[in-house]
Design brief:
Blueprint (H helix, E strand, L loop, with lengths): L1 H33 L14 E6 L4 E6 L2 H12 L4 E2 L12 E7 L5 E7 L2 E4 L4 E3 L5 H6 L4 E3 L10 H4 L8 E2 L11 E8 L3 E8 L5 E3 L4 E6 L2 E4 L14 E3 L4 E7 L9 E7 L2 E7 L2
Length: 279
């Protein structure tokens, strides 16, 4: 009798442990599915915190350095209940847009774009949370402010540009005609890269750096595409092409996201060459 009682007690204990384990799993699932803690990896001790505001014409940035205030702001944002949503939510975002930038302890950026309750994080996650981001923006009134940036610098502008034309910078002036005697030809175009040849018959050496940009023609107007990848930088190196010589250069297109069919322009220094991507 005592043996059976011990067996029953072990079974009860086993069932209890299983229920606790399942309950913990359900809690974790619900917590993760709700989002929240969107800035859990942020490092206010080692990074400044920047808030962005974009009204469709101008980007304004406010920078916060005070560690205690950064921690307080991060806690308030982390406490907001968030629910994961899908890509279609990005179409409901509209002006004005708010953004946030901070880095983690390893120096990697964490950025968020917000509009009409939709939160877009730079890791691709999309959430919905019914909280007006403008209240956080107002808390930084009086902090260091900068309005010299373009929309290309707005957090996650590359991802947003696929749904909102306002996140592509309108090129007001045409790139000047290429230097006489400097011929740039497209040798090949693939989904991930473009290869060009540069022939210098100008009689003078041609100097160019590693920086380049891509423009897209939309309705007869050229727009500069924002870079979508994080941590993209260009080495400050000068390439010198002597007169009478040629060079082959290949440029990565993936940093601008997936380029859809249309007419594009690769811009290097003051020189450019057009290319097309078929549908």
């Amino acid at each position: 009798m005592i043996v059976f009682q011990k067996i029953r007690e072990k079974r009860y204990l086993f069932v209890l442990l299983m229920l606790l384990f399942m309950g913990a799993g359900v809690f974790i699932f619900i917590f993760q599915n709700r989002g929240g803690n969107i800035l859990t990896e942020a490092s206010p001790d080692t990074s400044a915190l920047q808030l962005y505001y974009f009204d469709g014409k101008k980007v304004i940035v406010r920078t916060l350095y005070n560690i205690d205030r950064k921690k307080d702001l991060i806690k308030k944002i982390n406490d907001i209940p968030l629910e994961k949503t899908d890509e279609s939510a990005l179409t409901s975002m509209d002006i004005p847009f708010y953004g946030l930038w901070i880095s983690n302890k390893d120096g990697y950026p964490i950025s968020i774009a917000w509009s009409k309750g939709v939160w877009l994080k730079n890791n691709g996650a999309i959430y919905y949370g019914d909280r007006d981001f403008s209240s956080f923006w107002k808390q930084l009134e009086g902090e260091k402010e900068d309005d010299s940036l373009t929309v290309l610098n707005f957090p996650n502008a590359g991802r947003l540009s696929a749904y909102h034309l306002s996140f592509m910078l309108k090129v007001d002036e045409e790139v000047a005609e290429n230097t006489d005697g400097l011929d740039i030809l497209v040798k090949s175009v693939f989904p991930d890269e473009i290869t060009i040849s540069i022939s210098n018959n100008s009689g003078e050496e041609f100097t160019y750096g590693e920086y380049y940009s891509i423009q897209k023609e939309i309705g007869g107007q050229w727009y500069a595409l924002p870079i979508q990848e994080d941590n993209i930088g260009f080495h400050d190196i000068a390439h010198i092409l002597p007169a009478g010589e040629s060079a082959i250069e290949t440029y990565d297109l993936t940093i601008f996201g997936t380029l859809e069919s249309g007419n594009y322009k690769l811009v290097i220094e003051t020189e450019s060459v057009e290319f097309s991507i078929a549908g």
